[in-house]
Amino acid sequence: MISVRNGRPGRARLAALGAYVPERVVTNAEMQERVDTSDAWIVARTGIRERRFAAPDQASSDLGVIAAERAMAAAGISAESIDMVIVATATPDHLFPSTAVLLAHRIGARNAGAYDLLAACSGFVYGLAQASALVESGIARTVLVVGAEALSRLTDQTDRATCVIFADAAGAAVVTSADPREVTGFLGFELGADGAGADDLLIPAGGSRMPVAMAERPSDGYIRMNGTEVFRFATRIMVESTERLLAAAGLGIDDIDLVVAHQANSRILDHAAERLGLASERVYSNIERYGNTSSASIPLALTEARDEGRLTPGDLLLLVGFGGGLTWGSTIVRYEPVSGEPS
């Protein structure tokens, strides 16, 4: 599905960002004490040097609340002004109630609707698409989009293929209604899914297909990944989705100031940059510090890019997510923060 701006009135503005990472740092040295691996092996295959794990008393909603409050503070808005809370997560606190409902209650968003969105690592881009649609249709004026994950809880810490990759974090964005004469907003989205690859990245137990009580072994409740197939999918789809969206929007890659993609693997980012003709300084990466944080990775990277001076007001951004489902999503948006947002 490709959707580009068609002259409709109203603009959805990417107004503010916020992020949070847990305090506990887990290095590759610690990982090699658990499984047969080494720092050199992990860095060569993933680019990851360390990651963050949530504290025992922290769930996805706890991480998301802090990221949300930071984004709200940056936007200078109150919780009561939020019309909708969307939480993209593959690791909800519960199957129900939704993590979004819990988060909305915690931050005091009393006037907001709230729901979870599950598109795995593409979730944040899907959330931005829904936020943009809500704002530009007039249903909402202010939408809070949060990506929050506690992936370490659903990862087998004795499985070398996954335990060195997945980690915990949260990121958030405030999307608001703005005057179309003053802001550019979101120029388009390209969203897709291919269920033929569903078995390549999944958690077998925990749903109606295999309730936890019916699982044959504990490992059925952990992430299971066919790394080779997921890598092939990701390297292909990141380039293809980008090219389709740029063509539909009438733009070239040279029009983009900064690319912020899902932080899955440094080799995927390097491959895409080479195929698209992008210099490394135009592709933001922080995977070496945080690992793969699924739906939290893009807002976390955006917030860090802002804080490091790599993201400045007026920049045209290309955001690309890809992951379990298999799903993918990309958007082109101009970063137009409100006055309270750091720059």
Architecture blueprint of SSEs:
Layout: E1 2-4, E2 11-20, E3 24-27, H1 28-34, H2 39-46, E4 50-53, H3 60-75, E5 84-88, H4 99-107, E6 113-117, H5 123-137, E7 142-150, H6 160-163, E8 168-178, E9 186-193, E10 201-202, E11 224-225, H7 227-249, E12 258-261, H8 266-276, E13 283-284, H9 287-290, H10 297-307, E14 316-323, E15 327-334
Parallel strand pairs: 5-6, 5-7, 12-13, 12-14
Antiparallel strand pairs: 1-9, 2-8, 3-4, 7-8, 9-15, 10-11, 14-15
What Rg, in angstroms, do the CA atoms define?
19 Å
The CATH class assignment is Alpha Beta
Biggest sheet overview: 6 strands, mixed
Count of domains: 1
Tell me the series of helices and strands, N- to C-terminal: EEEHHEHEHEHEHEEEEHEHEHHEE
Low-pLDDT stretches: none
Report the CATH topology name.
Answer: Peroxisomal Thiolase, Chain A, domain 1
Straight-line distance between termini: 33 Å
Tally of DSSP helical segments:
10
Specify the helix fraction band: 25-40%
Q: What's the CATH superfamily, by name?
A: Thiolase/Chalcone synthase
Given the C-alpha coordinates, what overall shape results?
A: globular
Strand tally is 15
Shape-level CATH architecture: 3-Layer(aba) Sandwich
Mean pLDDT: 95
Structural class: alpha/beta
